[in-house]
Design brief:
- This protein is mainly alpha-helical.
- It has two domains: 138 residues, no CATH class; 32 residues, no CATH class.
- 59% of the residues lie in helices and 4% in strands.
- The protein contains ten helices and four strands; from the N terminus they run E-E-H-H-H-H-H-H-H-H-H-E-E-H.
- A two-stranded antiparallel ribbon has the order 1-2. A two-stranded antiparallel sheet has the order 3-4.
- Strand 3 and strand 4 form a beta hairpin.
- Helix 4 runs parallel beside helix 7 and helix 7 packs antiparallel against helix 8.
- The chain is elongated.
- 26% of the residues are buried.
């Protein structure tokens, strides 16, 4: 028995092979496209070029840092960013923010310890040995943690941090600084509010326009004409 299609005779085996091939090609095409983000059908573009040493010293707040200190700053900032993500992004479990952070700490513990020591050396060199340098190092840690905390841009931050966090856990030991150099720019960019790019973000951008509650606008529970006109103009109601 054969199936006829557009004037051609296709046997069952040939048809099966074509169906499998078609499904495989469709799957490959879908896999080649970027995955839709958890929060956006068309996600914002958070991509950035890798940070140079000069850019990193400014972005990380480490003026006059050596190349080794820049690497340490990159690593420690990435740790801070992913730690904040582990705390703030638990509302979306599929991002794996907690497990990614824990896996990064376990996998790159030696590089993280070295980065902390190098950063302490930077502050002891630039601020002062002993207690002044230690205090400056502690203040720096607090400051960078606060810098990655966000409310309005939380969805974008969580998405960007999850992507970089996944890269971190698969990076070879000793290369976490490279992950940070390539990914910290996108995490910092995500801290600026950017909503859904195709459909917009009507739920979050909606704001309620209320009339004036100034006592001068009201008499016996009714709004006076002048205030009513002003409110109509504000909400776009035609007279």
């Amino acid at each position: 028995m054969t199936l006829r299609y557009v004037g051609r005779s296709i046997g069952h085996r040939s048809l099966g092979r074509r169906v499998v091939l078609g499904l495989a090609m469709t799957a490959a095409a879908l896999m080649a496209q970027p995955a839709a983000a958890q929060f956006f059908w068309s996600p914002p573009d958070f991509s950035t070029p890798p940070l140079t040493d000069a850019e990193a010293t400014t972005a990380l707040g480490l003026p006059g840092a050596t190349a080794a200190e820049v690497k340490a700053g990159l690593v420690w900032n990435l740790r801070a960013a992913l730690n904040v993500a582990a705390l703030q992004c638990q509302f979306e479990p599929t991002l794996l923010s907690i497990s990614n952070y824990n896996a990064m700490i376990a996998h790159h513990d030696a590089e993280l310890d070295a980065a902390q020591t190098t950063l302490l050396g930077y502050f002891q060199r630039t601020v002062g040995k002993g207690k002044p340098g230690q205090m400056a190092s502690d203040q720096y840690g607090t400051r960078i943690y606060s810098g990655y905390s966000t409310v309005q841009a939380q969805r974008g931050f969580c998405q960007a941090a999850a992507l970089v966090g996944r890269q971190a856990i698969f990076a070879q030991r000793g290369t976490l600084n490279e992950v940070a150099r390539n990914g910290l720019g996108s995490i910092k960019k995500s801290l600026v509010l950017a909503g859904e790019q195709f459909y917009g973000d009507p739920g979050r951008s909606y704001s309620l326009t209320l009339p004036s509650f100034d006592p001068k606008c009201w008499k016996k529970g009714k709004m006076l004409p002048a205030c009513q006109l002003a409110w109509n103009q504000k909400i776009g109601v035609q007279p």
